[in-house]
Design goal:
single chain; 133 residues; alpha+beta; S-adenosylmethionine decarboxylase; 37% strand
Length: 133
């Protein structure tokens, strides 16, 4: 019986970023691609969209899943998702690359374990805890 998650999904909130770093599709796209490559993820496809007057959304599809971003330069905020299913992906390196690129003053990270099926011990324990609460 499998007892581990199929993948890890990091939801990253970057606050107080340098607004200039969040405005342009070229800069944001290159930062996300660099984060994927430096984390040893295998890049499959890259797509980014420039909003007017500013802001960027995009995805770096990796063999191990995907890295995505949406930016609000006027708020100095970036929402980043790093979803991967291979333990060899160095997600800490990806986060460092993004911190260097966007220079947030504050960052929060929420980890979600994806693919915990009902037969796994982790899932069953969480269900027991919900019933006790």
């Amino acid at each position: 019986m499998r007892r581990e998650a199929l993948g890890i999904h990091l939801l990253i909130e970057m606050y107080g970023c340098d607004p200039q770093t969040l405005k342009g599709v070229d800069y944001v796209g290159k930062a996300m691609e660099r984060a994927a490559k430096e984390s040893r993820a295998k890049v499959v496809e890259i797509f980014f969209h420039q909003f007017l007057p500013y802001g960027v959304s995009g995805v770096v599809v990796i063999e191990e899943s995907h890295y995505t971003i949406h930016t609000w330069p006027e708020e100095g905020y970036a929402a980043v998702d790093l979803f991967y299913c291979d333990p060899n992906v160095d997600v800490d390196r990806a986060i460092e690359v993004l911190k260097q690129a966007f220079r947030p003053k504050h960052i929060t990270i929420m980890e979600v374990k994806r693919g915990l099926l009902p037969e796994t011990a982790d899932y069953q324990e969480k269900q027991r805890q919900k019933m006790v609460s």
